[in-house]
Amino acid sequence: MFRVFCYYSMSVIKVQNISKHFGSLKAVDDLSFEVQAGQVFGFLGQNGSGKSTTIRMLLSLIHPTSGQIEIFGKRIEKDREAILEQVGAIIERPDLYPYLSAREHLELFAKVRKQKIGEADINATLEKVGLAHRAKDKVQTFSLGMKQRLGIGIALVHNPSLIILDEPTNGLDPQGIADIRQLIQYLAKEEGKTVLVSSHLLSEIEQVAHQILIIHQGKKMVEGVTKELLDPEKRIVQIKTSDDANALKVIVGGSFSNYLLSRSEGIYLKIPTREIPLLNESLVNAEVALLGIETKNSLEDYFLQITSNA
Amino acid sequence: MWSLIKVELYKIFSRPRTYIAFGAIAALIVVIQLGLKIDGDSYASFLMKDINDTLTVDGKVLNGYLICYILLQLLLVHVPLLVALIAADMISGEANLGTLRLLFTTPYSRTRWVLAKFIAASIYTILLLIWLAFLALFVSMWIFGTDDLFLMKSNYVVLIEQNDVLWRYVGAFVFASFALLTVTSLGFLLSSLSSNSIGPIVGTMSAIVFFTILSTLNIPLFTLVKPYLFTTHMNNWKEFFDIQVNANNEAITGSILNIPKIKTSLVVLTLHIILFVSASIIIIKKKDILS
Asked: How far does the CA of residue B19 sit from the closest CA of chain A (Å)?
Protein backbone atom coordinates (compact mmCIF):
# COMPACT_ATOMS: atom_id res chain seq x y z
CA MET A 1 0.00 0.00 0.00
CA PHE A 2 1.31 3.46 -0.91
CA ARG A 3 1.65 5.71 2.08
CA VAL A 4 2.34 9.40 2.02
CA PHE A 5 4.88 10.43 4.63
CA CYS A 6 5.68 13.94 3.56
CA TYR A 7 3.22 16.68 4.33
CA TYR A 8 5.67 19.48 3.61
CA SER A 9 4.49 22.84 4.88
CA MET A 10 1.20 21.29 5.87
CA SER A 11 -0.27 21.33 9.34
CA VAL A 12 -0.55 17.76 10.49
CA ILE A 13 -2.30 18.87 13.67
CA LYS A 14 -4.39 22.02 13.83
CA VAL A 15 -6.01 22.79 17.15
CA GLN A 16 -8.36 25.76 17.27
CA ASN A 17 -9.64 27.21 20.54
CA ILE A 18 -10.23 23.91 22.28
CA SER A 19 -11.47 23.86 25.84
CA LYS A 20 -12.36 21.05 28.16
CA HIS A 21 -14.27 21.63 31.35
CA PHE A 22 -14.85 19.03 34.03
CA GLY A 23 -17.60 20.69 36.02
CA SER A 24 -16.14 24.00 37.18
CA LEU A 25 -12.56 22.92 36.44
CA LYS A 26 -11.13 24.25 33.19
CA ALA A 27 -8.62 21.52 32.34
CA VAL A 28 -7.89 23.08 28.94
CA ASP A 29 -8.82 26.68 28.24
CA ASP A 30 -9.08 28.05 24.72
CA LEU A 31 -5.93 26.38 23.45
CA SER A 32 -4.75 26.74 19.85
CA PHE A 33 -1.63 25.44 18.14
CA GLU A 34 -0.39 23.82 14.97
CA VAL A 35 2.10 21.05 14.35
CA GLN A 36 3.80 20.99 10.97
CA ALA A 37 4.67 17.84 9.02
CA GLY A 38 8.01 16.24 9.83
CA GLN A 39 8.35 18.32 12.97
CA VAL A 40 9.10 17.23 16.53
CA PHE A 41 6.72 19.30 18.58
CA GLY A 42 7.48 19.64 22.28
CA PHE A 43 4.45 20.00 24.49
CA LEU A 44 5.51 21.23 27.90
CA GLY A 45 3.74 21.80 31.14
CA GLN A 46 3.68 20.82 34.77
CA ASN A 47 1.84 17.71 35.88
CA GLY A 48 -1.85 18.59 35.81
CA SER A 49 -1.36 21.47 33.38
CA GLY A 50 -3.70 19.94 30.78
CA LYS A 51 -1.19 18.18 28.50
CA SER A 52 -2.72 14.73 28.79
CA THR A 53 -6.25 16.09 28.50
CA THR A 54 -5.23 17.86 25.28
CA ILE A 55 -3.59 14.70 23.95
CA ARG A 56 -6.66 12.65 24.84
CA MET A 57 -8.77 15.13 22.89
CA LEU A 58 -6.42 14.78 19.91
CA LEU A 59 -6.99 11.03 20.08
CA SER A 60 -10.76 11.38 20.59
CA LEU A 61 -10.63 9.74 24.00
CA ILE A 62 -12.13 12.89 25.49
CA HIS A 63 -14.79 15.03 23.86
CA PRO A 64 -13.83 18.74 23.87
CA THR A 65 -16.28 21.13 25.50
CA SER A 66 -15.65 23.52 22.62
CA GLY A 67 -13.22 24.11 19.78
CA GLN A 68 -12.06 22.18 16.79
CA ILE A 69 -9.31 19.64 16.09
CA GLU A 70 -8.04 18.78 12.62
CA ILE A 71 -5.47 16.08 11.97
CA PHE A 72 -4.20 15.49 8.41
CA GLY A 73 -6.70 18.15 7.38
CA LYS A 74 -9.65 16.13 8.67
CA ARG A 75 -11.92 16.80 11.61
CA ILE A 76 -11.32 14.26 14.38
CA GLU A 77 -15.01 13.87 15.26
CA LYS A 78 -15.94 13.17 11.63
CA ASP A 79 -13.00 11.14 10.30
CA ARG A 80 -11.77 9.54 13.50
CA GLU A 81 -11.04 6.12 12.03
CA ALA A 82 -9.15 7.39 8.96
CA ILE A 83 -7.06 9.67 11.17
CA LEU A 84 -6.26 7.07 13.82
CA GLU A 85 -5.11 4.64 11.15
CA GLN A 86 -2.09 6.93 10.67
CA VAL A 87 -1.51 7.75 14.34
CA GLY A 88 0.48 5.90 16.97
CA ALA A 89 0.29 7.00 20.59
CA ILE A 90 1.19 6.33 24.16
CA ILE A 91 -0.78 8.18 26.79
CA GLU A 92 0.68 8.79 30.25
CA ARG A 93 1.44 5.45 31.87
CA PRO A 94 2.40 2.37 29.86
CA ASP A 95 -0.64 0.35 30.88
CA LEU A 96 -0.57 -3.09 29.34
CA TYR A 97 -1.96 -6.59 29.82
CA PRO A 98 0.18 -8.23 32.53
CA TYR A 99 -0.68 -11.74 31.37
CA LEU A 100 0.54 -11.21 27.79
CA SER A 101 4.10 -11.13 26.48
CA ALA A 102 5.72 -8.24 24.58
CA ARG A 103 5.35 -10.12 21.30
CA GLU A 104 1.70 -10.96 22.01
CA HIS A 105 0.99 -7.27 22.64
CA LEU A 106 2.46 -6.27 19.30
CA GLU A 107 0.67 -9.12 17.52
CA LEU A 108 -2.67 -8.14 19.07
CA PHE A 109 -2.34 -4.49 18.13
CA ALA A 110 -1.07 -5.43 14.67
CA LYS A 111 -4.32 -7.36 14.18
CA VAL A 112 -6.45 -4.28 14.75
CA ARG A 113 -4.72 -2.29 12.02
CA LYS A 114 -6.02 -2.30 8.51
CA GLN A 115 -2.66 -2.72 6.79
CA LYS A 116 -0.89 -6.05 6.85
CA ILE A 117 1.72 -6.23 9.59
CA GLY A 118 3.87 -9.33 9.39
CA GLU A 119 6.28 -11.18 11.63
CA ALA A 120 9.20 -9.18 10.21
CA ASP A 121 7.53 -5.86 11.17
CA ILE A 122 6.95 -7.11 14.69
CA ASN A 123 10.56 -8.29 15.02
CA ALA A 124 11.80 -4.96 13.68
CA THR A 125 9.65 -3.06 16.20
CA LEU A 126 10.95 -5.23 19.05
CA GLU A 127 14.50 -4.46 17.91
CA LYS A 128 13.73 -0.76 17.58
CA VAL A 129 12.53 -0.48 21.19
CA GLY A 130 15.19 -2.82 22.56
CA LEU A 131 12.90 -5.63 23.67
CA ALA A 132 13.85 -8.39 21.25
CA HIS A 133 15.59 -10.36 24.00
CA ARG A 134 12.50 -10.22 26.25
CA ALA A 135 9.90 -10.71 23.52
CA LYS A 136 8.43 -13.88 25.02
CA ASP A 137 8.35 -12.70 28.63
CA LYS A 138 5.08 -11.71 30.26
CA VAL A 139 4.67 -7.99 30.85
CA GLN A 140 4.09 -8.60 34.58
CA THR A 141 7.84 -9.32 34.83
CA PHE A 142 8.81 -6.03 33.13
CA SER A 143 10.22 -2.94 34.79
CA LEU A 144 8.45 0.39 34.26
CA GLY A 145 11.06 1.37 31.70
CA MET A 146 10.51 -1.82 29.71
CA LYS A 147 6.76 -1.27 29.78
CA GLN A 148 7.36 2.25 28.50
CA ARG A 149 9.42 0.86 25.61
CA LEU A 150 6.72 -1.67 24.80
CA GLY A 151 4.12 1.12 24.84
CA ILE A 152 6.24 2.96 22.29
CA GLY A 153 6.54 -0.26 20.29
CA ILE A 154 2.73 -0.54 20.17
CA ALA A 155 2.59 3.05 18.95
CA LEU A 156 5.10 2.31 16.18
CA VAL A 157 4.17 -1.18 15.04
CA HIS A 158 1.86 -0.01 12.26
CA ASN A 159 4.36 2.55 10.94
CA PRO A 160 2.20 5.64 11.59
CA SER A 161 2.82 9.08 10.06
CA LEU A 162 2.04 10.91 13.30
CA ILE A 163 3.37 9.74 16.64
CA ILE A 164 2.02 11.17 19.88
CA LEU A 165 4.11 10.39 22.93
CA ASP A 166 2.79 11.54 26.27
CA GLU A 167 5.63 11.61 28.83
CA PRO A 168 7.52 8.80 27.07
CA THR A 169 10.56 8.95 29.35
CA ASN A 170 8.62 8.44 32.58
CA GLY A 171 10.29 5.72 34.60
CA LEU A 172 13.30 5.40 32.33
CA ASP A 173 16.90 5.45 33.52
CA PRO A 174 19.33 8.02 31.98
CA GLN A 175 20.37 5.54 29.26
CA GLY A 176 16.72 4.80 28.51
CA ILE A 177 15.94 8.53 28.28
CA ALA A 178 18.85 9.00 25.87
CA ASP A 179 17.62 6.03 23.79
CA ILE A 180 14.12 7.49 23.53
CA ARG A 181 15.54 10.88 22.56
CA GLN A 182 17.59 9.18 19.86
CA LEU A 183 14.57 7.25 18.67
CA ILE A 184 12.46 10.41 18.41
CA GLN A 185 15.19 12.12 16.39
CA TYR A 186 15.54 9.07 14.14
CA LEU A 187 11.78 8.88 13.53
CA ALA A 188 11.62 12.52 12.52
CA LYS A 189 14.86 12.77 10.53
CA GLU A 190 15.16 9.36 8.91
CA GLU A 191 11.53 8.32 8.58
CA GLY A 192 9.96 11.74 8.09
CA LYS A 193 7.44 11.26 10.85
CA THR A 194 5.71 14.00 12.75
CA VAL A 195 6.15 13.59 16.50
CA LEU A 196 4.28 15.34 19.27
CA VAL A 197 6.05 14.65 22.54
CA SER A 198 4.93 15.91 25.91
CA SER A 199 6.94 16.30 29.07
CA HIS A 200 7.08 18.26 32.28
CA LEU A 201 10.86 18.65 31.87
CA LEU A 202 12.17 21.28 29.48
CA SER A 203 15.60 19.63 29.44
CA GLU A 204 14.09 16.53 27.81
CA ILE A 205 12.26 18.46 25.14
CA GLU A 206 14.72 21.16 24.17
CA GLN A 207 17.17 18.64 22.71
CA VAL A 208 14.71 17.05 20.30
CA ALA A 209 11.91 19.51 19.56
CA HIS A 210 11.83 21.94 16.65
CA GLN A 211 8.93 23.81 18.21
CA ILE A 212 7.91 24.18 21.83
CA LEU A 213 4.55 24.94 23.37
CA ILE A 214 4.30 25.55 27.10
CA ILE A 215 0.93 25.36 28.81
CA HIS A 216 -0.08 26.07 32.36
CA GLN A 217 -3.48 25.51 33.95
CA GLY A 218 -4.83 24.64 30.52
CA LYS A 219 -3.70 27.90 28.91
CA LYS A 220 -1.02 28.50 26.34
CA MET A 221 1.87 30.36 28.00
CA VAL A 222 4.41 30.44 25.21
CA GLU A 223 4.97 28.93 21.81
CA GLY A 224 7.98 29.24 19.58
CA VAL A 225 10.79 27.72 17.62
CA THR A 226 13.12 25.97 20.05
CA LYS A 227 16.30 27.48 18.55
CA GLU A 228 14.94 30.97 18.93
CA LEU A 229 13.60 30.37 22.41
CA LEU A 230 16.97 28.99 23.48
CA ASP A 231 19.03 31.59 21.55
CA PRO A 232 21.77 32.72 24.00
CA GLU A 233 21.97 36.08 22.17
CA LYS A 234 18.50 36.88 23.35
CA ARG A 235 17.45 37.35 26.93
CA ILE A 236 14.10 36.53 28.42
CA VAL A 237 12.81 39.56 30.24
CA GLN A 238 9.66 40.28 32.14
CA ILE A 239 8.74 43.95 31.97
CA LYS A 240 6.61 45.73 34.50
CA THR A 241 4.95 48.92 33.31
CA SER A 242 2.54 51.60 34.47
CA ASP A 243 0.09 50.60 31.73
CA ASP A 244 0.37 47.02 30.43
CA ALA A 245 -2.39 47.46 27.84
CA ASN A 246 -0.64 50.35 26.15
CA ALA A 247 2.74 48.68 26.53
CA LEU A 248 1.39 45.69 24.63
CA LYS A 249 0.11 47.99 21.89
CA VAL A 250 3.62 49.40 21.53
CA ILE A 251 5.17 45.94 21.45
CA VAL A 252 2.67 44.29 19.08
CA GLY A 253 2.37 47.33 16.85
CA GLY A 254 6.08 47.99 16.58
CA SER A 255 9.21 46.09 15.74
CA PHE A 256 9.13 44.14 19.01
CA SER A 257 6.21 41.87 18.18
CA ASN A 258 8.51 38.96 17.24
CA TYR A 259 10.03 39.07 20.69
CA LEU A 260 6.78 38.73 22.61
CA LEU A 261 6.73 35.41 24.44
CA SER A 262 3.70 35.67 26.65
CA ARG A 263 1.18 38.23 27.73
CA SER A 264 -1.21 36.13 29.80
CA GLU A 265 0.66 36.18 33.13
CA GLY A 266 2.74 39.37 32.77
CA ILE A 267 4.62 40.60 29.70
CA TYR A 268 7.51 38.35 28.76
CA LEU A 269 9.85 39.04 25.85
CA LYS A 270 12.75 37.16 24.33
CA ILE A 271 14.77 40.11 23.16
CA PRO A 272 18.39 40.85 22.14
CA THR A 273 20.10 42.82 24.93
CA ARG A 274 20.97 45.65 22.56
CA GLU A 275 17.30 46.29 21.83
CA ILE A 276 16.18 46.74 25.45
CA PRO A 277 17.02 50.51 25.43
CA LEU A 278 15.03 50.88 22.18
CA LEU A 279 12.07 49.18 23.80
CA ASN A 280 12.36 51.50 26.78
CA GLU A 281 12.47 54.52 24.46
CA SER A 282 9.38 53.36 22.56
CA LEU A 283 7.46 52.87 25.80
CA VAL A 284 8.43 56.28 27.10
CA ASN A 285 7.34 57.85 23.80
CA ALA A 286 3.97 56.21 24.28
CA GLU A 287 3.80 57.63 27.78
CA VAL A 288 4.18 54.22 29.41
CA ALA A 289 6.54 54.19 32.36
CA LEU A 290 8.84 51.19 32.59
CA LEU A 291 8.73 50.25 36.26
CA GLY A 292 11.11 47.33 36.06
CA ILE A 293 12.82 44.73 33.93
CA GLU A 294 13.49 41.30 35.36
CA THR A 295 15.88 39.12 33.42
CA LYS A 296 15.57 35.36 33.29
CA ASN A 297 18.78 33.49 32.61
CA SER A 298 17.29 30.74 30.51
CA LEU A 299 14.11 29.27 29.13
CA GLU A 300 14.30 26.82 32.03
CA ASP A 301 14.06 29.74 34.51
CA TYR A 302 11.21 31.18 32.58
CA PHE A 303 9.44 27.82 32.37
CA LEU A 304 9.90 27.24 36.08
CA GLN A 305 8.63 30.71 36.92
CA ILE A 306 5.51 30.62 34.84
CA THR A 307 4.63 27.11 35.86
CA SER A 308 5.23 27.62 39.54
CA ASN A 309 4.05 31.18 40.13
CA ALA A 310 1.56 31.97 37.45
CA MET B 1 -15.05 -6.86 13.26
CA TRP B 2 -13.87 -10.47 13.34
CA SER B 3 -10.32 -9.32 14.07
CA LEU B 4 -11.58 -7.37 17.10
CA ILE B 5 -13.51 -10.41 18.33
CA LYS B 6 -10.39 -12.57 17.91
CA VAL B 7 -8.36 -10.05 19.93
CA GLU B 8 -10.96 -10.07 22.70
CA LEU B 9 -11.18 -13.86 22.75
CA TYR B 10 -7.40 -14.11 22.87
CA LYS B 11 -7.35 -11.83 25.89
CA ILE B 12 -10.17 -13.71 27.65
CA PHE B 13 -8.54 -17.10 27.21
CA SER B 14 -5.06 -15.84 28.13
CA ARG B 15 -6.23 -15.00 31.62
CA PRO B 16 -6.11 -17.65 34.37
CA ARG B 17 -9.34 -16.21 35.85
CA THR B 18 -11.27 -17.44 32.82
CA TYR B 19 -10.66 -21.04 33.73
CA ILE B 20 -11.95 -20.69 37.30
CA ALA B 21 -15.52 -21.00 36.04
CA PHE B 22 -14.73 -24.09 33.94
CA GLY B 23 -12.94 -25.65 36.91
CA ALA B 24 -15.71 -24.76 39.36
CA ILE B 25 -18.39 -26.31 37.16
CA ALA B 26 -16.32 -29.46 36.62
CA ALA B 27 -15.63 -29.80 40.35
CA LEU B 28 -19.30 -29.35 41.30
CA ILE B 29 -20.58 -31.78 38.71
CA VAL B 30 -17.99 -34.44 39.49
CA VAL B 31 -18.74 -34.21 43.23
CA ILE B 32 -22.49 -34.57 42.65
CA GLN B 33 -22.03 -37.39 40.14
CA LEU B 34 -19.69 -39.17 42.52
CA GLY B 35 -22.16 -38.78 45.39
CA LEU B 36 -25.03 -40.11 43.32
CA LYS B 37 -22.93 -42.98 41.97
CA ILE B 38 -22.04 -44.07 45.49
CA ASP B 39 -25.35 -43.40 47.24
CA GLY B 40 -27.79 -42.79 44.39
CA ASP B 41 -30.28 -45.54 45.32
CA SER B 42 -31.10 -44.02 48.69
CA TYR B 43 -31.44 -40.61 47.00
CA ALA B 44 -33.87 -42.13 44.47
CA SER B 45 -35.86 -43.79 47.28
CA PHE B 46 -36.07 -40.45 49.05
CA LEU B 47 -37.38 -38.80 45.87
CA MET B 48 -39.98 -41.50 45.35
CA LYS B 49 -41.13 -41.93 48.95
CA ASP B 50 -44.41 -40.09 48.45
CA ILE B 51 -45.52 -42.10 45.44
CA ASN B 52 -44.13 -45.53 46.23
CA ASP B 53 -47.53 -46.57 47.65
CA THR B 54 -49.48 -45.57 44.56
CA LEU B 55 -47.04 -46.19 41.70
CA THR B 56 -44.70 -48.94 40.73
CA VAL B 57 -41.84 -47.66 38.66
CA ASP B 58 -39.87 -50.18 36.63
CA GLY B 59 -36.49 -49.45 35.15
CA LYS B 60 -33.63 -47.24 36.12
CA VAL B 61 -34.99 -44.02 37.65
CA LEU B 62 -31.56 -42.61 38.48
CA ASN B 63 -30.27 -42.56 34.91
CA GLY B 64 -28.09 -40.01 33.07
CA TYR B 65 -31.10 -37.94 31.97
CA LEU B 66 -32.41 -37.48 35.52
CA ILE B 67 -28.90 -36.73 36.83
CA CYS B 68 -28.56 -34.03 34.18
CA TYR B 69 -31.93 -32.52 35.18
CA ILE B 70 -30.89 -32.48 38.84
CA LEU B 71 -27.56 -30.90 37.93
CA LEU B 72 -29.18 -28.22 35.80
CA GLN B 73 -31.63 -27.36 38.56
CA LEU B 74 -28.74 -26.92 40.96
CA LEU B 75 -26.24 -25.22 38.66
CA LEU B 76 -28.21 -22.95 36.37
CA VAL B 77 -28.87 -20.76 39.40
CA HIS B 78 -25.15 -20.43 40.13
CA VAL B 79 -23.64 -20.32 36.64
CA PRO B 80 -24.76 -16.67 36.21
CA LEU B 81 -22.43 -15.78 39.04
CA LEU B 82 -19.54 -17.38 37.15
CA VAL B 83 -20.58 -15.61 33.95
CA ALA B 84 -20.53 -12.30 35.81
CA LEU B 85 -16.86 -12.83 36.68
CA ILE B 86 -15.90 -12.35 33.06
CA ALA B 87 -18.74 -10.27 31.57
CA ALA B 88 -18.69 -7.62 34.28
CA ASP B 89 -14.93 -7.28 33.85
CA MET B 90 -14.91 -6.81 30.08
CA ILE B 91 -14.91 -3.01 30.04
CA SER B 92 -14.29 -2.02 33.66
CA GLY B 93 -11.30 -4.37 33.87
CA GLU B 94 -9.68 -2.61 30.91
CA ALA B 95 -10.55 0.80 32.35
CA ASN B 96 -8.90 -0.28 35.59
CA LEU B 97 -5.79 -1.58 33.79
CA GLY B 98 -5.68 1.57 31.66
CA THR B 99 -5.73 -0.45 28.44
CA LEU B 100 -9.11 0.87 27.31
CA ARG B 101 -7.38 3.93 25.87
CA LEU B 102 -5.07 1.67 23.85
CA LEU B 103 -8.11 0.02 22.27
CA PHE B 104 -10.00 3.25 21.68
CA THR B 105 -7.07 4.86 19.85
CA THR B 106 -7.15 2.13 17.20
CA PRO B 107 -8.99 2.91 13.95
CA TYR B 108 -12.25 1.27 15.02
CA SER B 109 -15.27 2.94 16.53
CA ARG B 110 -16.15 2.47 20.17
CA THR B 111 -19.40 0.82 19.07
CA ARG B 112 -17.43 -1.86 17.24
CA TRP B 113 -15.18 -2.45 20.23
CA VAL B 114 -18.16 -2.72 22.58
CA LEU B 115 -19.93 -5.14 20.25
CA ALA B 116 -16.73 -7.18 19.79
CA LYS B 117 -16.32 -7.35 23.55
CA PHE B 118 -19.94 -8.39 24.04
CA ILE B 119 -19.70 -11.07 21.35
CA ALA B 120 -16.46 -12.39 22.88
CA ALA B 121 -18.07 -12.47 26.35
CA SER B 122 -21.07 -14.24 24.81
CA ILE B 123 -18.82 -16.85 23.18
CA TYR B 124 -17.24 -17.43 26.58
CA THR B 125 -20.71 -17.84 28.10
CA ILE B 126 -21.80 -20.29 25.41
CA LEU B 127 -18.59 -22.29 25.80
CA LEU B 128 -19.22 -22.44 29.54
CA LEU B 129 -22.71 -23.74 28.83
CA ILE B 130 -21.40 -26.32 26.35
CA TRP B 131 -18.91 -27.45 28.98
CA LEU B 132 -21.77 -27.72 31.47
CA ALA B 133 -23.86 -29.67 28.95
CA PHE B 134 -21.01 -32.02 28.15
CA LEU B 135 -20.33 -32.83 31.81
CA ALA B 136 -23.91 -32.81 33.07
CA LEU B 137 -25.54 -34.64 30.17
CA PHE B 138 -23.05 -36.71 28.22
CA VAL B 139 -20.78 -37.72 31.11
CA SER B 140 -23.87 -38.54 33.21
CA MET B 141 -25.28 -40.64 30.33
CA TRP B 142 -21.93 -42.43 30.16
CA ILE B 143 -21.70 -43.06 33.90
CA PHE B 144 -25.35 -43.74 34.74
CA GLY B 145 -26.73 -45.00 31.42
CA THR B 146 -30.05 -43.93 29.88
CA ASP B 147 -33.69 -44.75 30.48
CA ASP B 148 -37.03 -42.93 30.53
CA LEU B 149 -36.97 -39.60 32.36
CA PHE B 150 -39.11 -39.62 35.47
CA LEU B 151 -39.69 -36.19 36.97
CA MET B 152 -41.52 -35.28 40.14
CA LYS B 153 -43.31 -31.94 39.78
CA SER B 154 -45.11 -30.16 42.61
CA ASN B 155 -48.41 -32.00 42.23
CA TYR B 156 -47.89 -34.44 39.38
CA VAL B 157 -45.25 -36.65 37.83
CA VAL B 158 -43.94 -36.56 34.28
CA LEU B 159 -42.66 -39.60 32.46
CA ILE B 160 -40.85 -38.95 29.20
CA GLU B 161 -39.72 -41.84 27.05
CA GLN B 162 -35.97 -41.99 26.63
CA ASN B 163 -36.10 -41.52 22.86
CA ASP B 164 -38.06 -38.29 23.50
CA VAL B 165 -35.58 -36.74 25.94
CA LEU B 166 -32.40 -35.68 24.12
CA TRP B 167 -33.99 -33.00 21.92
CA ARG B 168 -35.59 -31.49 25.02
CA TYR B 169 -32.15 -31.05 26.52
CA VAL B 170 -30.97 -29.39 23.32
CA GLY B 171 -33.94 -27.01 23.61
CA ALA B 172 -33.27 -26.45 27.33
CA PHE B 173 -29.61 -25.62 26.70
CA VAL B 174 -30.49 -23.24 23.86
CA PHE B 175 -32.99 -21.55 26.17
CA ALA B 176 -30.41 -21.45 28.98
CA SER B 177 -27.98 -19.74 26.61
CA PHE B 178 -30.49 -16.86 26.22
CA ALA B 179 -30.85 -16.69 30.00
CA LEU B 180 -27.09 -16.60 30.53
CA LEU B 181 -26.57 -14.09 27.72
CA THR B 182 -29.01 -11.81 29.55
CA VAL B 183 -26.74 -12.07 32.58
CA THR B 184 -23.73 -11.43 30.32
CA SER B 185 -25.34 -8.29 28.92
CA LEU B 186 -26.32 -7.07 32.41
CA GLY B 187 -22.75 -7.56 33.63
CA PHE B 188 -21.57 -5.80 30.51
CA LEU B 189 -23.83 -2.81 31.14
CA LEU B 190 -22.63 -2.42 34.72
CA SER B 191 -19.07 -2.85 33.45
CA SER B 192 -19.49 0.14 31.14
CA LEU B 193 -20.42 2.31 34.12
CA SER B 194 -17.40 1.58 36.26
CA SER B 195 -13.61 1.85 36.25
CA ASN B 196 -13.00 -1.13 38.47
CA SER B 197 -14.12 -4.74 38.18
CA ILE B 198 -15.32 -5.47 41.69
CA GLY B 199 -18.32 -3.12 41.58
CA PRO B 200 -19.84 -4.52 38.37
CA ILE B 201 -19.21 -8.15 39.39
CA VAL B 202 -20.84 -7.66 42.80
CA GLY B 203 -23.52 -5.47 41.17
CA THR B 204 -24.44 -8.17 38.65
CA MET B 205 -24.63 -10.84 41.33
CA SER B 206 -26.69 -8.57 43.59
CA ALA B 207 -29.08 -7.69 40.76
CA ILE B 208 -29.65 -11.38 40.02
CA VAL B 209 -30.27 -12.19 43.69
CA PHE B 210 -32.52 -9.12 44.13
CA PHE B 211 -34.66 -9.75 41.05
CA THR B 212 -34.82 -13.50 41.73
CA ILE B 213 -36.29 -12.74 45.15
CA LEU B 214 -38.84 -10.37 43.57
CA SER B 215 -39.68 -13.03 40.98
CA THR B 216 -40.35 -15.70 43.58
CA LEU B 217 -42.23 -13.61 46.15
CA ASN B 218 -45.98 -13.90 45.83
CA ILE B 219 -46.82 -10.37 46.89
CA PRO B 220 -49.51 -8.68 44.72
CA LEU B 221 -47.43 -5.51 44.28
CA PHE B 222 -44.58 -7.49 42.76
CA THR B 223 -46.93 -9.56 40.61
CA LEU B 224 -47.32 -6.52 38.36
CA VAL B 225 -43.62 -6.29 37.57
CA LYS B 226 -42.78 -9.98 37.61
CA PRO B 227 -43.57 -10.65 33.92
CA TYR B 228 -41.03 -7.98 32.94
CA LEU B 229 -38.16 -9.20 35.13
CA PHE B 230 -35.58 -11.32 33.35
CA THR B 231 -35.17 -13.48 36.45
CA THR B 232 -38.82 -14.58 36.15
CA HIS B 233 -38.00 -16.15 32.79
CA MET B 234 -34.51 -17.52 33.34
CA ASN B 235 -35.69 -20.83 34.78
CA ASN B 236 -38.25 -21.57 32.08
CA TRP B 237 -35.93 -24.08 30.41
CA LYS B 238 -37.89 -26.52 32.58
CA GLU B 239 -40.90 -26.02 30.31
CA PHE B 240 -39.20 -28.32 27.80
CA PHE B 241 -39.82 -31.13 30.27
CA ASP B 242 -43.55 -30.58 30.72
CA ILE B 243 -45.39 -32.73 28.25
CA GLN B 244 -48.94 -32.72 26.83
CA VAL B 245 -51.29 -35.60 27.49
CA ASN B 246 -54.16 -36.95 25.40
CA ALA B 247 -57.74 -37.62 26.53
CA ASN B 248 -56.60 -40.86 28.16
CA ASN B 249 -53.99 -38.97 30.15
CA GLU B 250 -51.23 -40.56 28.08
CA ALA B 251 -48.14 -38.53 27.30
CA ILE B 252 -47.90 -37.25 23.74
CA THR B 253 -44.39 -37.93 22.48
CA GLY B 254 -42.61 -34.88 21.07
CA SER B 255 -45.01 -32.41 22.67
CA ILE B 256 -44.41 -29.47 25.02
CA LEU B 257 -47.16 -28.39 27.39
CA ASN B 258 -46.71 -24.64 27.20
CA ILE B 259 -44.87 -23.45 24.09
CA PRO B 260 -46.20 -19.85 24.35
CA LYS B 261 -44.60 -19.55 27.78
CA ILE B 262 -41.20 -20.50 26.31
CA LYS B 263 -41.70 -18.07 23.41
CA THR B 264 -42.67 -15.23 25.73
CA SER B 265 -39.66 -15.88 27.93
CA LEU B 266 -37.31 -15.91 24.92
CA VAL B 267 -38.75 -12.58 23.75
CA VAL B 268 -38.40 -10.98 27.20
CA LEU B 269 -34.83 -12.24 27.58
CA THR B 270 -33.88 -11.10 24.06
CA LEU B 271 -35.34 -7.65 24.70
CA HIS B 272 -33.30 -7.41 27.90
CA ILE B 273 -30.13 -8.35 25.99
CA ILE B 274 -30.81 -5.70 23.33
CA LEU B 275 -31.63 -3.10 25.97
CA PHE B 276 -28.54 -3.77 28.10
CA VAL B 277 -26.12 -3.89 25.15
CA SER B 278 -27.61 -0.76 23.53
CA ALA B 279 -27.32 1.11 26.82
CA SER B 280 -23.67 -0.02 27.13
CA ILE B 281 -22.90 1.31 23.64
CA ILE B 282 -24.54 4.67 24.36
CA ILE B 283 -22.69 5.02 27.69
CA ILE B 284 -19.30 4.13 26.22
CA LYS B 285 -19.76 6.38 23.19
CA LYS B 286 -20.46 9.37 25.41
CA LYS B 287 -17.84 8.58 28.02
CA ASP B 288 -14.58 10.49 28.39
CA ILE B 289 -11.79 7.94 28.76
CA LEU B 290 -9.90 9.34 31.72
CA SER B 291 -8.39 6.22 33.24
From this structure: 14
The arithmetic mean of pLDDT across residues A104-116, rounded, is 88
Torsion over CA of A160, A162, A166 and A172, rounded to 10 degrees?
Answer: 50
* B29 close to B68: Cβ distance less than 8 angstroms: no
Query: Residues B237, B172: contact at Cβ < 8 Å?
Result: yes
Collapsing DSSP to helix, strand or coil, A292 comes out as strand
Domains in chain B: boundaries: 2-286
A2 touches chain B (CB under 8 A): no
**pLDDT band at residue A204 using 50, 70 and 90 as cut-offs:** confident
Global pTM reads 0.83
pLDDT digits (tens, 9 = 90+) for B212-263: 888 888 888 778 888 888 888 988 888 898 888 888 877 788 888 889 999 9
Q: Where are the domains positioned within chain A?
A: 11-220, 232-309
> ipTM of the predicted structure?
0.77
The residue among B142, B137, B144, B146 whose CA lies nearest residue B40 is: B144
* Residues 6+ positions from A56 with CB-CB distance below 8 Å: A62, A91, B101, B288, B289, B290
Cβ contacts below 8 Å, chain A against chain B, sum to 75
Contact B102/A100, CB-based, under 8 Å?
Answer: no
Which one of B7, B99, B108 has the shortest CB-CB distance to A95? B99
pLDDT above 80 for B51: no
Contact B7 A108 (CB under 8 A): yes
Q: How far is CA A40 from CA A117, A205, A208, A298, B50, in A?
A: 26, 9, 7, 21, 85
**Is residue B3 less than 8 Å (CB to CB) from chain A?**
yes
CATH 3.30.70.360 is the classification of domain A232-309: no
Q: pLDDT tens, B177-216?
A: 999 999 999 999 999 998 888 899 999 989 988 888 888 8
Higher-pLDDT residue of B114, B55: B114
Compare CB distances from B97 to A97, A109, A114 and report the shortest one's residue. A97
Asked if the A11-220 domain carries CATH number 3.90.470.10, the reply is no
| Contact list, A91 vs chain B (CB under 8 Å) | 101, 105
Q: Which of B5, B6, B96, B105 to mutate to test the interface with A (most CBs of A within 10 A)?
A: B105
User: Min CA distance, B95 vs chain A (Å)?
Assistant: 10
What local confidence, expressed as pLDDT, does residue B112 receive?
93
User: Using the beta-carbon criterion (under 8 Å), do B99 and A97 form an inter-chain contact?
Assistant: yes
